[in-house]
Amino acid sequence: MRLVWQLLAVAAISLAGGWPMMAFGDDPWIAFAIGTATAVLAVVVYRWIVRLTERRPVVELAREGAVAKTGFGALIGAIMFALVILNIAFLGSYQVDGLGAPIGMIGLLGFMAAAAVTEELMFRGVLFRVVEQWAGTWIALTLTSVVFGLVHLGNENATLWGAIAIAIEAGGMLGAAYIATRNLWVPIGVHFGWNFAASAIFSTEVSGNGTPKGLLDAATSGNPLVSGGDFGPEGSLYAIGFGILLMLGFLWLAKRRGRIVPLRRAARAELLATLPR
Fold this sequence. Notes:
Blueprint: H1 2-24, H2 28-53, H3 66-90, E1 94-99, H4 104-135, H5 137-151, H6 160-181, H7 185-201, E2 216-220, H8 224-227, H9 237-256, H10 265-274
Antiparallel strand pairs: 1-2
């Protein structure tokens, strides 16, 4: 039951910020204000609902080191996307024609902050964490990665391949970041850094959302397996490759730190009882 209440609480904040963002998002300053407020409020609500339904303290969102951990994650995400773009550009599938809409970076900053925070709270903070307690790390990582990919099928330019790519590169990578660090600040930072670099700096499509232009007037073209097609560079084989490498790095670190949770014997018996014979 706590899973339901926690998911509903964070989803409600996400929707509360999403509707005015769609209505007034053309103004970058309003988009920035709404997005930032949504991100902050989501953290406050998450802390409140976890304390109310589960436990104190909320260690995965501890205030100590929050800024440094988020910044570190954002740097990783931005560098990773830059490497993806460099490889796509090397094959001629990404071209820059000058400056795009630098003022648009402000609105995208707020929008991507809201997206990163609310999605990480829902998928890693609630869904992954609760499933892991019952079924262990590997089942939780697999399940949440698949669900994370599937929810992106609702985006404007979504494709099945794009959803599969998101499940592998983002669901796996962000889940592994949480496993290795046992805090939500690092995956929030990675998620934000990746999305902000993709949209606000390199002006590419993000998860097939119909993302507006950012700093550069740029476009992708060519083979969708290289460029990602209409879904954006997240559908590129380069993004999948770099995402897998980062996921494996985080999982190696998690294993060294002893943070892999095994499938408990009782839970395993319960799980096997539900499977078809």
